[in-house]
Specification:
5 helices, 169 residues, alpha+beta, 2 domains, 4-stranded antiparallel beta sheet, 4-stranded mixed beta sheet
Length: 169
């Protein structure tokens, strides 16, 4: 299998979106966040009724941070990506029975299949994990060798024990 893509901000946003979508704990944190917003809103309303303006301002600011936390996270991540020396590089990834090989103008990386702990198949690509938070996103649209999902699945199943599917498979 051969993949080629430009590692720009859009690529990384897609990769992080896939990563976050497969995290089961995110649903729990979303529920806690919304419960917190409701409780803080009630407290802010009570502070407003009692004319405790400092309390209202503090609670409103905290509610705003909770409401915009994903946008804040995306903004911080985007700033960090723009500083990366690897942003906007053309990346070639070749996957064979021997392993994973990625090359770009500034780097070369080779990994044996044993370095990958799990894989997640989405309807539009693969997410390969080398640990709990280290992942590589391989979108089907960047495959040079044809229908990446169909051709790549036997290779992944052969070398990675923990494979699961999300979104239409």
């Amino acid at each position: 299998m051969h993949y080629r893509f430009n590692a720009n901000e859009r690529y990384f946003e897609e990769a992080f979106a896939r990563y976050y979508s497969q995290l089961q704990i995110r649903k729990f944190f979303a529920a806690v966040k919304w419960i917190g917003i409701v409780v803080l809103s009630a407290a802010a309303a009570m502070a407003f009724i009692q004319q405790k303006w400092l309390g209202v301002a503090f609670l409103a600011a905290f509610i705003a941070v909770l409401l915009y936390s994903q946008r804040i996270d995306r903004f911080v991540r985007s700033r960090q990506l723009r500083r990366s020396p690897f942003i906007n590089e053309d990346v070639d990834i070749i996957l064979t029975d021997a392993g994973f090989e990625a090359t770009s103008p500034s780097t070369s990386l080779r990994l044996a299949w044993s370095a990958f702990t799990s894989a997640v198949r989405f309807s539009d690509g693969w997410l390969l994990f080398s640990g709990p938070r280290l992942f590589r996103w391989l979108p089907d649209s960047s495959s040079i060798t044809g229908s990446a999902g169909l051709e790549f699945e036997p290779l992944v199943r052969k070398h990675i024990a923990n494979v699961h599917f999300i979104g239409g498979q």
